[in-house]
Design goal:
- The chain is mainly α.
- The protein has 2 domains: about 180 residues, Arp2/3 complex 21 kDa subunit ARPC3 (Orthogonal Bundle); about 130 residues.
- It has 10 helices and 2 strands; from the N terminus they run αββααααααααα.
- Strands 1-2 form a two-stranded antiparallel ribbon.
- Strand 1 and strand 2 form a beta hairpin.
- Helix 1 runs antiparallel to helix 2, helix 8 crosses helix 9 and helix 9 runs antiparallel to helix 10.
- It starts with a helix and ends in a 17-residue tail after the last helix.
- The C terminus is likely disordered.
Length: about 325
């Protein structure tokens, strides 16, 4: 029995590593389908592998780092020739999610995202903070190897950083819900959920393709989804809207027509960032308030039960109350 368990552990680790690597590579290739050119460098406005990496580390532990490194290596090799910059990029793309996981654990992050502090931690530590590592290392290596001019460092760095951060903000919560929390669906609201889905599917493509710049129409849908379906509804809505907006931006249509590549990147990332922050923080705040209300209701029920026992002349343990001294 002991021998079987010792043999099983390496097999499980190998399968898990290969699965993480495959998921990372698939997400990377999916993200590379939509690219923008900033100062001669090709960047992805939404890079899903960073979200996949952070979610895997939070769910399955730091042992997933090897699968992330293998997946990052395969993604980089699929678009460039091997060299020093490849090793540095892979290292940065591996260290950044690991640092994000460590910082989130340090502050007591919960994968349920049921507290406002969890949403804030994911935004400022997991996304905006940790992804500085990958963007800085990647841009520095491009300059050091002569593939990028020094004057173009900051635009490329900013685009790289925001693309990685958007992957964490949009993809990680969806994966945490799908693989970790699995909230119970409210079947009593299926008609409302169906109606919201139909409106999102119709309105979002229109808003992202219209030349009238009506992207703001997406925000009421995010608020509706957050109020009625909390994190599940808001993040799925944000994910769909971000994908459709990214497609419109890379195609140069709708509100992104007649804009330069840098202007497209700025407008797209500003919209995706504000939308992800709205969906994540609003839904986390609503969930926290609902949990607090349930706790208060439970405490009130327990207090009523205690008062009923006392009114009946018994203590909660079923013993008679202590005798009282007569008044003199």
């Amino acid at each position: 029995m002991v021998g079987t368990q010792q043999l099983r552990r390496p097999v499980v680790f190998a399968v898990q590593t290969l699965t993480v690597a495959a998921c990372y590579f698939a997400a990377g290739r999916l993200g590379l389908l939509r690219q923008l050119v900033v100062e001669g460098a090709v960047v992805t406005p939404l890079y899903p592998p960073t979200g996949v990496a952070v979610a895997c580390l939070l769910l399955y532990g730091l042992r997933c780092w090897l699968g992330i490194a293998i997946g990052a290596l395969l993604v980089v090799w699929s678009i460039t020739t091997p060299g020093l910059s490849v090793i540095g990029t892979v290292l940065g793309n591996t260290v950044a999610p690991v640092c994000a996981c460590l910082m989130l654990r340090r502050v007591g992050f919960r994968i349920s995202l049921a507290r406002l502090r969890d949403g804030l931690a994911l935004v400022f530590l997991g996304a905006l903070g940790a992804m500085l590592i990958s963007s800085t290392s990647g841009a520095v290596l491009l300059v050091a190897t002569g593939k990028l001019e020094v004057s173009a460092f900051w635009p490329v760095w900013l685009a790289w950083w925001v693309g990685d951060a958007m992957g964490v903000l949009i993809v990680t919560p969806v994966l945490l819900l799908a693989l970790g929390v699995r909230p119970r669906p409210n079947l009593g609201r299926w008609r409302e959920a169906l109606g919201l889905t139909l409106i999102v599917v119709v309105l979002v493509p229109v808003a992202t393709r219209s030349t009238l710049s009506v992207l703001f129409l997406i925000y009421p849908l995010l608020i509706w989804a957050a109020l009625r379906f909390q994190l599940v509804g808001s993040m799925l809505c944000a994910l769909f809207a971000s994908v459709m907006t990214t497609i419109a931006a890379t195609d140069g249509t709708g509100p992104f027509v007649h804009l330069s590549d840098v202007e497209v990147m700025i407008k797209l990332q500003a919209f995706n960032g504000s939308m992800a922050l709205t969906a994540l923080l609003l839904s986390a705040l609503i969930t926290e308030q609902r949990n607090t209300r349930r706790s208060v209701e439970l405490a009130c029920d327990e207090l009523i039960e205690v008062l009923d026992h006392l009114t009946a002349g018994e203590t909660p343990q079923g013993r008679p109350p202590p005798a009282r001294r007569p008044l003199e």
